[in-house]
Design goal:
Blueprint (H helix, E strand, L loop, with lengths): L9 E7 L3 E8 L4 E8 L3 E2 L5 E2 L2 H16 L8 E6 L4 E4 L5 E5 L17 H8 L8 H11 L1 H4 L4 E4 L3 H7 L3 E2 L1 H4 L5 E2 L4 E2 L1 H6 L9 E2 L5 E3 L3 H6 L8 E3 L2 E2 H9 L7 E5 L6 E5 L9 E4 L6 E5 L5 H11 L5 H5 L10 E4 L16 E4 L9 H27 L5 E5 L7 H10 L3 E4 L5 H13 L11 E5 L5 H20 L2
Parallel strand pairs: 1-6, 6-15, 6-16, 10-13, 17-23, 23-24
Antiparallel strand pairs: 1-2, 2-3, 4-5, 7-8, 7-9, 11-12, 14-15, 17-18, 18-20, 19-20, 21-22, 24-25
Length: 488
């Protein structure tokens, strides 16, 4: 058992993503003492729908949390949870969890055509087309294929607010998560009776809307013990959606002149705004607390492409050694296209991808060049969306702050800086932005404003003039355009 300074507050921060969950022990000065990961497990039924086994999910979190805390002799002041969007847990009349429905469940898409006449009305209220991504169609699909399960559902909560139910017996939902249900009016910022009626969910009891940073006393002391927490005065503080928490980690709540890149499984470019802006080319979300909107431009690339390529081609090499072979002022004539973003204003355009090399096949091509081409593809895809955002908003932004595991690359942020002509700042602890967003939530809720806890810039990438890179970007854009046109 390790004794550490007990005159500080210590926080248990939980980030439940899609592929895995992370649990971290952090003190009030931002120091991370330990962080552990656990893989999330899903189950598929005979209809292809996806579920979360609640007991297994909770047991796995209890195990990993105990592992984090077992070597430290400390009290935990507060717990906050970040949750992936579009994942929900269903409750029975006794407020007991029956099962979870993850964001990767899309059974509702098989029944979207039944609601086609309501498409425009739903879009006007939610800024989203009807889709199995959201809770309304997840439940509608469940009603069609598993009526015996659907009729047990009395209420629901989001992934992040599930823990308010477990620790505090509060059935609530944060506005950033409520916006992902498609029965929530994004503009009135409330549950919408007409939407509820359209999806025939009138029998469902709705959770209370509660803002991030709301503090609750924990009443379930037994669960505290199962999580390895020995003190009874630990508080639960409402977190929210993972992307919005990642933004909170790197942007002040009132900052609207800076763009935020969250580079991980996806790599959205985000912008806070007071007024809603509806556009088919971006996603409209609610920020934490629901006071601001978030515009989200998705470049359709994942940092996992880079990770998978390295693992496949050069598993024993470091990212640094690979990237040392890439010269942004002398780009090799090898291109990759693995983005899913549309390059045509047509919904039915089909996108292909792969590696592209001028014929004949060169005998000097290296594995490093192929991996480098994927890094450039990610950087180009992000830069293209930033340029589109700047055109759409017609505003002169100051910089881009970036976070997420995708920023382990030095090439990608430099490419974004060069193509967009905006500096890219990467803060410390950038690999765990949602965890650090949870930290900011607790520090704000507990009025901790320690100067030592101010996040520090770890890397800064300034725009550098490179005609070779600009020319390569144009070739890459034209290549993607031709791929789609030739395959429609």
């Amino acid at each position: 058992m390790v004794n550490i300074m007990n005159n500080k507050d210590f926080y248990l921060l939980i980030d439940v993503g899609t592929g895995s969950s992370r649990v971290a022990l952090v003190d009030e000065d931002r120091k991370i003492y330990d962080i552990q990961h656990v893989k999330n497990v899903y189950q598929k039924d005979n209809f292809g729908g996806m579920f979360i086994d609640f007991k297994l999910f909770l047991n796995n979190l209890e195990i990993v949390t105990k592992r984090v805390l077992e070597t430290f002799d400390i009290n935990i002041s507060a717990i906050t949870v970040s949750g992936a969007r579009q994942t929900f847990f269903c409750l029975n009349k006794n407020k007991k969890v029956i099962f979870g429905i993850p964001n990767i469940d899309d059974r509702g898409n098989r029944f979207v055509s039944k609601y086609s006449k309501f498409q425009q009305l739903v879009f006007d209220k939610t800024a989203r087309n009807i889709s199995g991504d959201f809770l309304a169609m997840k439940l509608a699909g469940l009603r069609e294929e598993r009526p015996e399960l659907f009729h047990k559902v009395y209420s629901f909560t989001s992934l992040s607010e599930l823990f308010a139910l477990l620790f505090c017996d509060k059935c609530i939902i944060e506005p950033s998560q409520a916006a992902e249900t498609q029965i929530f009016n994004l503009f009135e910022k409330c549950w919408d009776p007409e939407l509820i009626s359209i999806f025939q969910l009138d029998s469902i009891s709705l959770p209370e809307l509660v803002a991030s940073q709301t503090i609750y006393q924990i009443t379930n002391k037994d669960l505290l013990r199962k999580f390895g927490i020995r003190n009874d005065d630990c508080k639960f503080i409402v977190g929210g959606a993972d992307t919005q928490l990642a933004m909170k980690a790197v942007l002040p709540d009132n900052e609207k002149n800076t763009l935020c890149l969250v580079s991980g499984t996806t790599s959205p470019i985000n912008l806070r705004t007071k007024t809603p802006d509806i556009n088919k080319d971006h996603w409209l979300d609610l920020d934490l607390k629901g006071n601001n909107y978030v515009l989200e431009y998705n470049p359709g690339v994942t940092g996992l492409n880079y990770e998978k390529a390295k693992k496949f081609f050069l598993p024993n090499s470091s990212y640094q050694s690979i990237e040392e072979t890439v010269d942004l002022n002398n780009i090799q004539n090898i291109f990759a296209s693995f983005t899913t973003q549309s390059f045509l204003k047509k919904n039915n355009a089909r996108k292909y991808g792969g590696f592209f090399i001028s014929p004949p096949f060169p005998d000097s091509i290296t594995k490093e060049q192929l991996i480098g081409a994927i890094a450039l593809d990610i950087g180009f895809s992000i830069a293209r969306k930033v340029k589109q955002l700047k055109r759409d908003q017609n505003f002169n932004y100051k910089s881009i702050v970036a976070c997420g595991g995708g920023l382990n690359s030095r090439i990608i942020p430099q490419v974004v800086a060069n193509i967009t002509d905006l500096p890219v700042k990467v803060y410390e602890n950038f690999q765990e932005p949602s965890i650090m967003g949870c930290f900011e939530v607790i520090n704000s809720a507990l009025n901790k404003n320690n100067q030592s806890s101010i996040s520090k810039v770890r890397f800064e990438y300034y725009p550098q003039e490179s005609k070779a890179l600009q020319d390569s970007f144009e070739v890459w854009e034209n290549l993607n355009l031709s791929i789609i046109q030739n395959k429609e």
